[in-house]
Amino acid sequence: MGKVLVFGHKNPDTDSITSAIVYAYLKQQLGAEAEAVRLGEVNNETKYVLEKFGFEAPRLISDVSEEASEVILVDHNERQQSADGIENVKILEVIDHHRIANFETADPLYYRAEPVGCTATILNKIFKEKNVEIPSNIAGLMLSAIISDTLLFKSPTCTEEDVQAGKELAEIAGVNLEEYGLAMLKAGADLSDKSLEDLLTLDAKEFTFGTVKSIVAQVNAVDVNDVLNRKGELVSLLNKNVEEKGLNLFFFFVTDILNNDSVAIVAGNAAEDAAKAFGKELVDHQFDLPGVVSRKKQVVPVLTDALS
Amino acid sequence: MGKVLVFGHKNPDTDSITSAIVYAYLKQQLGAEAEAVRLGEVNNETKYVLEKFGFEAPRLISDVSEEASEVILVDHNERQQSADGIENVKILEVIDHHRIANFETADPLYYRAEPVGCTATILNKIFKEKNVEIPSNIAGLMLSAIISDTLLFKSPTCTEEDVQAGKELAEIAGVNLEEYGLAMLKAGADLSDKSLEDLLTLDAKEFTFGTVKSIVAQVNAVDVNDVLNRKGELVSLLNKNVEEKGLNLFFFFVTDILNNDSVAIVAGNAAEDAAKAFGKELVDHQFDLPGVVSRKKQVVPVLTDALS
What we know:
- The structure is a homodimer.
- Chain A is of the alpha/beta class.
- Chain A folds into two domains: 4-189, inorganic pyrophosphatase (n-terminal core), CATH 3.90.1640.10; 196-307, Diaminopimelate Epimerase, Chain A, domain 1 (Roll).
- Chain A is 40% helix and 20% strand.
- In chain A, the strands form two sheets. Chain A has a six-stranded parallel sheet.
- In chain A, helix 2 (44-53) links the parallel strand 2 and strand 3 (59-60).
- Chain A is globular.
- The mean pLDDT of chain A is 95.
- Strand 6 (110-113) of chain A pairs antiparallel with strand 6 (110-113) of chain B, so a sheet runs across the interface.
């Protein structure tokens, strides 16, 4: 058996990068030859995390079938979110916390999904089940993934298990959870070096709601006005994307990580319907999303119901 | 939250029936309102097991959406093997040891699949993880599922974990593993009350290999001649099925549970190719499968490779 590659989804967030590193570490402790890799650029938040706990970013790969014959997926399962060439390798394991869709294997595998807020929360359990000790710096990565995915426990995706795991891991990592959490989120929400193009692609996922071809993209900000100040340009760019990609909807929303509210800026012929789905009127491509922080729990289900 | 129904696949085997009972028991111990149900008739082997350990067969259901809004699947995931109406209920959990295919959810769920020989082996782990004690009669059911799925540890699907779990469970159940295992398999291999129609449907699964529409059915026997003696009739019946169901292949094989060999009787326009796939010549619809006991590991992959 050759080396097994471990990776999260394309357009990786902190959970996808750190869970690959963490699970590769665990597999190594259990005797497997495993290497964490990544499918895209490391974002500012993740860079802050890796530096804080003394890790390098995993190696970037493109077509996975040119690199290995066996892989482990973390933090995703849907084929369109996974590596190019994924259909030509054997998926040995999946550790994930998303719905299952567009996923199929020829053989039995180890598949561990739980409806919790973060992959790292599941990994924390697996370390215990396997009786492997979690080193301080690995705990730091896991804690960071939980803070990132749950927006410091504020997201409706967050479960009691995530909170519990976060507390345990903060203790092992030796950091103050609240202080470190806020600093990390702020590092991720620092948009000063980002172009508007960057903002639209930083955390963008493709969806099809019925016949409505869509992109739903989210950015976190300490001050949403940093983004809203550039709204004219932003709307032009959204319209350009809609046209070039043949979209019916580009749903972009900026989340205020301090107040846990969001503002949506949308374009495409389904834009008004999208606003209505949230009981809002679309005014100049914009509407408020009070209390909304989670794409998975608070945006995608609403759009699915209204547009499908 | 109403009652959660727990069930295995259509055409249930011992693992599908007992794992539903066992996991419903575990969920009850953890405070959930769970009921085991079944999607088809209980076979002779399973009847022997239920009687031995003092259980009634679970309630038979047809359209699951008329019974509950939330379900847990054990020992399967593919939609065509699951309950009618499955697309209209929420799948909360899956505990399985098969490949994943034709399965999709709208929401995150608990999905636990491991590449072991039997669902009960995974359940044995979950009992430990949840710190729930396994009562003697529940251990008996779990042990029986492992014996059934691994053909008393002889199947190539059997892993070291299955053997270990089997030994632990035999001790808790207070039975002699070898003696009980053979008696149970013999009870299941008693074909004396079965019509030929019964034999073809007892453990039949549908597959499509490329464009080759197929049924692959298996029966266990203490003496394969019990079945081969009726070969003329059997072949007529296979041909009838091929015609009526528009099949390219009906692959029926009888497994000798004492010697761990099988004999295949096949019909359909892909019958010769099926024999060739095993390096055999088809003689009067028949060929030997020495050492073959597992549809999943030794038959389906060979047919997939050769016919797809």
